[in-house]
From TrEMBL:
The lineage of its organism: Bacteria, Pseudomonadati, Pseudomonadota, Gammaproteobacteria, Lysobacterales. Residues 1-21 form the signal peptide. This is Uncharacterized protein. The keyword Signal applies. Keywords: Signal. It comes from Dokdonella fugitiva. It comes from the Bacteria.
Length: 416
């Protein structure tokens, strides 16, 4: 899934004053409790009071590769908006306010299904982690584990049968992202930076707190879980995106010789992902075969990796897999960076946190050294993470065979 911003919203953002020229809305979660909001600007978007607006399809239907995502004609009205926000001051509701925030995505594919109560990217309500399919919270310091000093965003995607998915067989996608001109500075960073001071490297930490492999909901449906980093830019006439899979179980997007390629339509004009993208997919363990350098993979519960992803290097490497090759033009804007969990099947899920998300310079990345992989061993739980673990354990108790399926290492095999 996922896409881009409207030219109109981008132009408005450029005209507005903002706190800093580039970077994420809150570099490193350094400003205290993170400000987070769901996709749409208005709390009633996608309801009868404020129907969605559909634009033209980015890609026409095609019977040949790459796969073309469907371009839905509706519905444009849903029973509820599933609007949610945290740490939101009243001043941000004033017309013309330029407030910075992170965007929470709650998408349940098929996103345009009439079975979903909410509109695409707000298909299901946000839940406290362990208490619903789309579990999200931000925790600080000792609430994570004793001695911790960070704000961490916990993404807990849970496809337990105890949480009724209104669209059986759906693929839920839970995300947290930054989008240029939509709650974020006009320029997040750049590709092909013309100077050493330009922000071009995505730096962040991700920790795998737990996962339970799902099982098939139907005999014909594979069951899988994955955790992604998505990076969005634009050249030519279309948005371009790389989906880098950091962790996965029973699912692969690429191999040592192939990568995935998708034409994705997202024609909802009010969404940060409008109008879609030309997407290339690659799993981190396959980067070494295609690009000649390594990016570590999250494989084990308790593992934490501090990533520094040189976006230019990755797009250059994947250049030939897009519809148009990556250009040599300097300072191509990075317009979106998203972290996401995705799952198919039932009675399983994945729990990660992302933290210290920053855009940094290539020089800064070199000074920081290689990606750092740490094994946390036995998880030390604080009050917040303890509550999440207890909720997940209770849900697991209600699912036959759940504890037997829990594993310490994610699996490379395809299909279940």
């Amino acid at each position: 899934m996922k896409g881009f911003i409207t030219l109109a919203s981008y132009a408005l953002a450029l005209a507005a004053s903002c706190a800093g020229a580039t970077g994420f809305p809150d570099q490193g979660f350094s400003a205290g409790p993170p400000r987070v909001r769901t996709d749409y600007n208005l709390s009633n978007e996608g309801t009868a009071a404020n129907p969605l607006t559909r634009g033209a399809c980015l890609y026409p239907p095609s019977g040949s590769p790459p796969y073309v995502g469907p371009c839905a004609t509706g519905p444009n009205v849903y029973s509820q908006s599933n609007y949610w926000r945290q740490n939101w001051p009243a001043s941000c509701d004033v017309a013309g306010a330029n407030c910075l925030y992170w965007v929470l995505g709650l998408n349940n594919e098929d996103a345009s299904s009439t079975l979903n109560p909410g509109p695409p990217d707000a298909s299901l309500p946000r839940a406290a982690p362990g208490s619903g399919i789309m579990g999200f919270s931000t925790l600080y310091g000792n609430d994570n584990f004793p001695g911790d000093t960070l704000w961490r965003a916990h993404l807990v995607l849970n496809v337990s049968s105890g949480f009724d998915n209104p669209a059986p067989g759906a693929t839920p996608f839970l995300s947290l992202g930054a989008f240029a001109g939509h709650g974020t500075n006009p320029t997040i960073g750049v590709l092909n930076p013309s100077s050493g001071s330009a922000l071009s490297v995505v730096s962040f930490g991700e920790r795998l707190w737990g996962f339970t492999p799902p099982v098939r909901r139907y005999p014909t449906q594979d069951s899988s879980i994955a955790s992604y980093l998505w990076i969005v830019t634009k050249w030519g006439t279309k948005p371009r995106m790389i989906a880098l899979m950091l962790a996965h179980d029973h699912f692969k997007n690429s191999s040592a010789t192939t990568v995935g390629h998708n034409h994705w339509n997202w024609n909802i004009q009010e969404s940060v992902y409008y109008p879609g993208a030309d997407i290339v997919y690659i799993d981190v363990e396959d980067v070494v075969s295609h690009c000649g350098y390594s990016i570590p993979r999250l494989t084990t519960v308790g593992q934490e990796i501090n990533y520094r992803i040189d976006a230019t290097r990755l797009f250059r490497c994947m250049s030939s897999h897009f519809d148009e090759p990556f250009p040599t033009t300097a300072n191509i804007p990075i317009t979106g960076v998203i972290w996401a969990n995705e799952a198919t099947g039932k009675d399983g899920g994945i729990w990660v946190d992302v933290h210290q998300m920053k855009m940094i310079t290539a020089t800064g990345a070199l000074a920081a050294g290689d990606d750092e992989v740490r094994d946390g061993g036995a998880m030390r739980l604080g009050p917040g993470t303890g509550a999440i673990a207890n909720a997940l354990e209770q849900r697991c108790l209600e699912s036959p065979g759940c504890f037997e399926r829990e594993s310490a290492t994610l699996d490379d095999r395809v299909g279940r």
